[in-house]
Amino acid sequence: MNVMEINVLVLAYLGDTIYENYIRKFLILKGISNVNDLQKEAVSYVSASSQASYLTKLLSSNFLTEEEIEVVKRARNYKTTSHPKSCDILTYKHATGLEALIGYLDLTKQKERIDEIMDFIFRN
Length: 124
Hints:
6 helices; Ribonuclease iii, N-terminal Endonuclease Domain, Chain A; mainly alpha; globular; single chain
């Protein structure tokens, strides 16, 4: 199956769990050992507004390839009217774009590229 034919919301569904796993490992390795503290700190990375902000930084830094930008655009432009109450539709679509990109990279076996993107996020 061609990964580019997979529904972008399905890619985002996968990407969400991979992204959150990276965040959790990062925070644990940072030395945070209290579960409540881990959860509070994780929110600063996994909220839709944070993900949208990281995507904007990735795009403005010309960090993403044309292929990666295409995946992000497909996800951002996907027709949906539903979104969490905690953010507006544009923020949600940008967050979905980042998650879809991570899912796409995972399915195309580009773990090193996911590592590079996550390193960028952790530095910003």
